[in-house]
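Long-time lurker, first post. I've been practising inverse folding by hand and with some scripts of my own, and I keep getting stuck on stretches where the structure tokens seem ambiguous. Below is the full token string for one chain I'm working on. Before anyone asks, I'm not after the true native sequence, just a reasonable design that respects the backbone. If someone could post their per-position residues I'd love to compare against what I wrote down in my notebook.
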């Protein structure tokens, strides 16, 4: 078992962790933060099947061969190597390592979404609670200066009693095609539905601002554009000069992925295409990899636009829209209360507050924050998590598994509502999820 505290006695604030999954999030977000903040977080072992990522991440953290594994199982078979396990595997690969790590005695920093089914989400949360382990979910937007300020204004009472929330996530077309048409989150076999894979952050904020359980919801949406039926006539399977519309197509893979110089192509989204950022390596990856495909001829099945209408306890209502055909990335929100209104645009860092009966609008401009790193949310989450972890103050977690469960359930219920065309009663939905989780736990015994 790990020590009762979260840190080594000799180095009071350093939280030690094993890293499970060394892809974009594991290697660069968490591993990268540990390298930049060695006084706060140290990676002591890792598991990663991809040999290039494994070797590169192990070298970055100076790990000896007996601390480097091809998968999480042999790592978690050992007596715990650290107090914390960071699980940053793909969407459909969270549950098994998270359950095993909690059982082994690790505290968890687990990427969102918790699991691809609501019952599995509940099982993971309950497992962490049963074993008395801390469970932090990667809901990074709570930790941005922007949304922290919004919440502060909301809880200050300036707006009176909250009546309605309107939030929108406009996903830029190039981001959408990269991740949700060609890429890692394109279909249900490998990823959670869009409402979780992309917008679980927004639903988490919605639940945070509402501050009470959701009662019922309705949702509509579909994949309306990135379908074979919309493919230009005679467009080939892959983008190339043989495509009759290549020059006019905004989704041409060659222009988007081969355009940037090697230096820029080391960063996301180009880093997903090839670990070697040279133009020649990228060209080879487009020839047979997923990112070279025509966006109208992929195996995507996630929606490209969806709306949710929700009612919370006490009658508070909310609407949320996500779509993948925006010209630029933008998250907007409007919180309307009995005494005033708050309007905000995350990407501009602008928050405006007006009070009924009071002339003028109070406008705040937050210091610029970059979308890479989630507007300061990645750093904020890790600062918070390592600080709370170093004190073992698990009840201070802002985005715990139990808290995150509410927004996950809203997301799954929205998917149910969208698929059935019926509104969903959240109390009944919660009861159904609990029954299912009990049944699964029973059959796993
Ligand atoms: N919090 C956020 O804002 C945020 C942002 C992006 C992604 N994510 C989530 O983070 C997770 C990881 O996303 P990513 O973009 O880093 O994906 P990725 O595909 O780049 O990385 C996942 C890694 O897990 C590895 N893996 C697979 N099986 C494994 C096993 N058995 N043992 C150990 N490692 C294994 C893969 O080889 C891969 O390197 C996803 O669930 C994603 O939804 C969260």
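-- Answer (accepted) --
I ran through it position by position. Result:
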């Amino acid at each position: 078992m790990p020590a009762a505290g979260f840190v080594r006695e000799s180095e009071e604030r350093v939280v030690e962790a094993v890293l499970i999954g060394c892809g974009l999030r594991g290697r660069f977000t968490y591993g990268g933060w540990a390298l930049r903040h060695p006084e706060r977080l140290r990676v002591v072992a890792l598991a990663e099947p991809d040999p290039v990522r494994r070797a590169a991440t192990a070298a970055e953290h100076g790990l000896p061969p007996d601390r480097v594994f091809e998968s999480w199982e042999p790592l978690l078979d050992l007596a715990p190597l650290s107090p914390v396990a960071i699980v940053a595997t793909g969407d459909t690969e969270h549950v098994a390592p998270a359950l095993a790590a909690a059982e082994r005695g690790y505290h968890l920093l687990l990427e969102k979404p918790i699991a691809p089914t609501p019952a599995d989400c509940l099982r993971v949360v309950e497992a962490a609670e049963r074993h008395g382990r801390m469970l932090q979910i990667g809901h990074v937007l709570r930790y941005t200066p922007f949304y922290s300020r919004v919440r502060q204004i909301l809880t200050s009472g300036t707006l009176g009693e909250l009546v309605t929330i309107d939030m929108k996530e406009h996903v830029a077309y190039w981001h959408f095609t990269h991740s949700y048409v060609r890429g890692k989150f394109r279909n249900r076999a490998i990823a959670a539905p869009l409402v979780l894979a992309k917008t679980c952050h927004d639903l988490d904020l919605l639940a945070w601002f509402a501050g009470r359980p959701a009662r019922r919801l309705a949702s509509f949406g579909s994949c309306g554009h990135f379908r074979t039926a919309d493919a230009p006539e005679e467009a080939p399977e892959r983008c190339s000069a043989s495509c009759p519309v290549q020059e006019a197509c905004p989704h041409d893979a060659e222009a988007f992925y081969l355009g940037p110089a090697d230096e820029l192509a080391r960063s996301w989204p180009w880093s997903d295409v090839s670990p070697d950022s040279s133009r020649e390596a990228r060209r080879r990856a487009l020839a047979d990899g997923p990112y070279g495909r025509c966006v109208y001829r992929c195996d995507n099945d996630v929606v490209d636009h969806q709306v949710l209408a929700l009612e919370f306890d006490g009658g508070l209502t909310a609407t949320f829209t996500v779509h993948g055909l925006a010209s630029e990335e933008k998250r907007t929100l409007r919180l309307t209360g009995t005494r005033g209104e708050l309007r905000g645009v995350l990407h501009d860092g602008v928050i405006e507050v007006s009070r009924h009966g009071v002339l003028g609008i109070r406008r705040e401009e937050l210091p610029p924050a970059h979308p890479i790193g989630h507007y300061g949310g990645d750093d904020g989450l890790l600062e918070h998590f390592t600080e709370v972890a170093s004190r073992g103050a698990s009840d201070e977690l802002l985005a715990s598994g139990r808290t995150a469960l509410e927004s996950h359930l809203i997301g799954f219920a929205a998917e149910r509502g969208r698929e059935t065309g019926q509104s969903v009663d959240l109390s009944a939905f919660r009861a159904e999820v609990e029954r299912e989780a009990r049944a699964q736990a029973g059959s796993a015994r």
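A couple of notes from the structure itself: Residues 20-26, 47-50, 53, 71-72, 88-91, 93, 111-112, 138, 140, 184, 197, 374 surround nicotinamide-adenine-dinucleotide (CB under 6 Å). The chain has a mean pLDDT of 93. Happy to go over any region you disagree with.
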